[in-house]
Amino acid sequence: TLLAEVHAPLGVFGCLGNHDYWSDPDEISNSLRKVGIRIPTDDGITLNISKSSSLRIYRSDYPYLKPWSFDVPDRDETFLNIVLSHTPDYYKRLEKSGANLIFSGHLHGGQWRIPLFGSVIAPSIRDRIFDMGHFAYKKAHIFITAGG
Predict the structure, then answer these.
(1) Rounded CA separation 47/27 (Å)
(2) Exposed (0-12), middle (13-18) or buried (19+): which is 132, by Cβ within 10 Å?
(3) Using CA atoms in the order 20, 24, 29, 30, what is the torsion angle rounded to 10 degrees?
(4) What is the pLDDT of residues 39-95, one digit of tens each?
(5) How many Å apart are CA 72 and CA 52, to the nearest integer?
(6) 74 Cβ contact partners less than 8 Å away, ≥ 6 residues apart
(7) Do 148 and 17 contact (CB within 8 A), yes or no?
(8) Is the distance from CB of 55 to CB of 44 less than 8 angstroms?
(9) How many H-runs (helices) and E-runs (strands) does the chain carry?
(10) How far apart are CA 139 and CA 123, in angstroms?
(11) How far is residue 109 CA from its own chain's centroid?
């Protein structure tokens, strides 16, 4: 598949989205793993970048899997805590839970875009405020792609 062609020096990571949970999340997760895409567990995946710096990659499945379960277990400031969250709607809770970087999609840059106006509709509890791009909130940076 096309996803098997994606390579990165430290690995390729992913999380599931709403349509994945509405169909067969176990089968989709297994298919992603078979082509080398790593899906972080609740404990996260630790990557040692150098002798003095490391990062952890987590995923947040809320609201697709309830209740809220994400929390960085060790708030060690020497780690950069990255969270893959299909929806950016819960960025405040993720930041409060210890996330430094949040990568999301879900909003597709808005369902329709009008030049000089931007998105018309975004499937978010926050409407069009965070339809795509980079945003900073307290100690976290949020990156929202126009992809799924």
Answers:
(1) 26
(2) buried
(3) -150
(4) 998 788 999 888 888 899 998 887 777 777 777 776 777 788 999 988 888 889 899
(5) 20
(6) none
(7) yes
(8) no
(9) 3, 10
(10) 25
(11) 15
Evaluate whether 89 touches 18 at the Cβ level (below 8 Å).
no
**pTM of the entire structure?**
0.82
> Count of residues for the chain?
148
What end-to-end distance do the CA atoms of the chain give, in Å? 17
State the CB neighbour count (10 A cutoff) for residue 5.
8
Do residues 93 and 67 make contact, with C-beta atoms less than 8 angstroms apart?
no
Please give the full DSSP string across 79-147, using - where no structure is assigned.
Answer: EEEEEEES--TTHHHHHHTT-SEEEE-SSTT-SEEETTTEEEE-SSTTTTTTSSEEEEETTEEEEE-S-
Instruction: Tell which wins on pLDDT, 145 or 47.
Output: 47
Which phi and psi angles does 51 have, rounded to 5°?
Answer: -65, -25
